[in-house]
Amino acid sequence: MAEQGAADLGNNNNNKPEASEGTIIKVTVKTPKDKEEIAIAEDASVTQFKEEISKRFKAKQDQLVLIFAGKILKDGDSLSQHGIKDGLTVHLVIKTAHKAADGGSTSASSSTSNQGGNSTTSSPAANPAPTTVPTGSGHTPTQTPNIMSESACVLFELKTLFLPKITSLSQRLSHAGGFGDLASLAGLGMGSANFMELQQQMQRQLMSNPEMLSQIMENPLVQNMMSNPDLMRQMIMANPQMQQLMERNPEISHMLNNPELMRQTMELARNPAMMQEMMRNQDRALSNLESIPGGYNALRRMYTDIQEPMFSAAREQFGNNPFSALGGNSDSGAQPSRTENREPLPNPWGPPNSSNPSESGGGTTGSTSTSGTTNPSVSNPLGVNPGSLGNGMFNSPGMQSLLQQISENPQLMQNMLSAPYMRSMMQSLAQNPELASQVMMNNPLFAGNPQLQEQFRSQLPIFLQQMQNPEALSVMTNPRAMQALMQIQQGLQMLQTEAPGLMPSLMTSGIPGVPTGGAVPSENPASSPSSAATNPAQQQLMQQMLQMFAGGGGSGGGNGTSQTPEVRFQTQLDQLNAMGFINREANLQALIATGGDINAAIERLLGSQPS
Amino acid sequence: MAQNNSSFPVQLYVYDLSRGMARELSSLFLGRQVDGIWHTGVVVHGKEFFFGGGGIAHCQPCGTVLGQPNSIVDLGYTEVNEDLFQEYLDSLAESEYRGDKYNLFEHNCNTFSNDVAQFLTGKTIPSYITDLPSEILSRVLASGSFAVPTPPLLLGWRLIEADMTVELSSPSS
């Protein structure tokens, strides 16, 4: 072999693969930057191989160092000697001409400065919890479980609030040089220009790594910072949502100012067993409360007054959990007590799908980021199932009430959508459809329904693009648009049950017309008096969306609408004009919102007139 | 032919970032059992190499803040000497493994360890490490909100209780 190698060196310049007989194999040659497939004879020598490589990689043969299975391939060897076969990968390092002799320990962009110094400073990257205030002062809540529960809540609230603060803090503290994932959190801050991305990633990591919290808290630096109650209070106050909450509910500020509580909270974070204990106590206390006369009502009242905003505040940070309403519908006193009774909807579960009731009820653990992907579903109550429009999940009563809740609370949607976390999450989901589909598939709501999954999967890219479209987002924050969508859906349901044969033909062209008919509860729009301008462009977009989705998602969403609202409502507009409502714009909006129902539109117009 | 092929042992140091808490709490927060949040570094030529937010870095073995590894996986031997390895790392640091290429889930320390291990020895690192991000990502995003509503809920109840106590004790309200 050796002679052959030596002989080949001089003789075999052309290095045709057939120079030595043998089959040709394709070997992948991989450099740190590049990858190429090279065809070479099975029994070729390393030298021959290097010749090929040098041509392909435009480097001199003696700059090439080949490594396979941990061994450096010497010129005299043959490929088969090392077991290099078809389809395998050989690593290549191209030595630079001025080969830095002392290795690159200086030239490596990899920092060697990581040793020692950065370790403690970068660990507070992720987030902390309240402090260990040594001296408890002020009022101590009467029962221990209460302390614990308060602690837990404060813990989490503060955690969400502190994340941005700590992030910036860690950025200032840490320097280049990460070591592993822990410090990479800090490094992330340096590396990525996008602060929001950092926050998002940190939150993600935090959620997957609860122990990190305890670790962080034990860090002396963090403890020092945390032990300053003023600083903490300041940070808390700085969060606008907390401020809002505190204005409305002074008890919260009391609680936050209670150092005893803080200490408890921190201990709680350390000790998951304690946390579980506390949760159990909480449940017990709750059931006790219910039995006290008048207690239940008080409970409900407090819930609506306090929990809702708290929920929203927390949710905004983490992205919304729109499905919390689904499972907890019986508990959300908000719904029945604040809004008018909605008419029951027609049977949402068409014949094909009897398994859905379980799904819709089980949605409590709906995801945070699938809220990003389920956003389309929330705002698109069509349910987008080309197969059967009445299909379960989206038409469930829970979903309906959720939609109503959202339409009444435009702020919620607004906040949720505009949370930078949400945006970047959606962006990353959009860029990585596989990820998004994976995420969605794991959403418990979809779990039981492979058919739904398939549909969603196919429409996913379009969904995501839609989400990116700021117009689409603004449509979703428009409560009347939401209501209109709901009405459309209801109309479609009706149609499906009443005239199943009609549906296919209606799908593409008839949808804009549907809202004018169908089962439209007329008191629907009355609850939102705000006159946010629903300009025709938004309407257009909405209709496009509807058409696109109803058309099976394949049409790309750019379909022109068949009729603009103006055309559709021409008759009604004229009637309104004749009655004396001369503000055409307002008329149009009202008509759109009420789906062409003149009487309801008149009520709207009268209600929104400044008195 | 019989050249002096020096042979350097290559090891993979595996650390659990959660210090065991993932094993305890993961099913609570993620809905499924995850045994650890793995961070890895490759130890060769007497140094530990890893990839982080600041790019490729190295230190003394066990020299990170994580201390002693959870487990050490033997990856075999390599003939690649220090100089060559350093050149390789330089190339990587200019391309695939710059600091800004760090992605917590898709291009992290374990990705780096895997690539380096393959370069040095031809072997990959154990799959339970490289599979972790996709598992966690799907689980976290699917069920992460489980953890979120609970504390605000608790807060709400607490305040309810407080109010209840007040109300009951002062019936005049």
Automatic annotation (TrEMBL), chain A:
| Span of domain Ubiquitin-like | 25-95
Compositional bias (Low complexity): 103-132, 366-381, 519-537
Cellular component (GO) terms are: chromosome; cytosol; endoplasmic reticulum; perinuclear region of cytoplasm
Q: Name one GO molecular function term.
A: polyubiquitin modification-dependent protein binding
Region Disordered, residue ranges? 1-21, 101-145, 318-396, 515-537
- Per UniProt, the ranges with Polar residues bias are 133-145, 318-338
Provide the GO biological process annotations. DNA repair; ubiquitin-dependent protein catabolic process
Query: Which key words tag this protein in UniProt?
Result: Chromosome, DNA damage, DNA repair, Endoplasmic reticulum, Isopeptide bond, Phosphoprotein, Ubl conjugation
Which intervals hold domain UBA? 563-608
Whether Endoplasmic reticulum counts among this entry's keywords is: yes
The record's section on PROSITE patterns has: UBA, UBIQUITIN_2
In terms of InterPro entries, this protein maps to: STI1_HS-bd (IPR006636), UBA (IPR015940), UBA-like_sf (IPR009060), Ubiquilin (IPR015496), Ubiquitin-like_dom (IPR000626), Ubiquitin-like_domsf (IPR029071)
Q: Which domain of life is it from?
A: Eukaryota
Where does the UniProt annotation locate this protein? Chromosome; Cytoplasm, Perinuclear region; Endoplasmic reticulum
Gene3D superfamilies in the record: 1.10.260.100, DNA helicase RuvA subunit, C-terminal domain, Phosphatidylinositol 3-kinase Catalytic Subunit, Chain A, domain 1
Quaternary structure, from the entry? Homooligomer. Binds signal sequences of proteins that are targeted to the endoplasmic reticulum. Interacts (via UBA domain) with GJA1 (not ubiquitinated) and with ubiquitin; both compete for the same binding site. Interacts (via UBA domain) with ubiquitin and with polyubiquitin chains. Interacts (via ubiquitin-like domain) with PSMD2 and PSMD4, regulatory subunits of the 26S proteasome. Interacts with ATXN1/SCA1; interaction with ATXN1 inhibits polyubiquitination of UBQLN4 and interferes with PSMD4 binding. Interacts with HERPUD1.
| Identification of the protein by name | Ubiquilin-4
Q: Which organism is it from?
A: Gambusia affinis (Western mosquitofish)
UniProtKB/TrEMBL annotation, chain B:
The UniProt keywords, alphabetically, are: Hydrolase, Protease
Which Gene Ontology BP annotations are present?
protein modification by small protein removal; proteolysis
Recorded protein name is palmitoyl-protein hydrolase
Q: What GO molecular function annotations does the UniProt record carry, in alphabetical order?
A: palmitoyl-(protein) hydrolase activity; peptidase activity
Looking up InterPro entries in the UniProt record yields:
PPPDE_dom (IPR008580), PPPDE_sf (IPR042266)
**Statement: the UniProt record of this protein carries the keyword Calcium:** no
Q: EC? A: 3.1.2.22
- Catalysed reactions, semicolon-separated: S-hexadecanoyl-L-cysteinyl-[protein] + H2O = L-cysteinyl-[protein] + hexadecanoate + H(+)
* Record domain PPPDE: where: 8-159
Highest taxon of the source?
A: Eukaryota
Q: Which family does this protein fall into?
A: Belongs to the DeSI family.
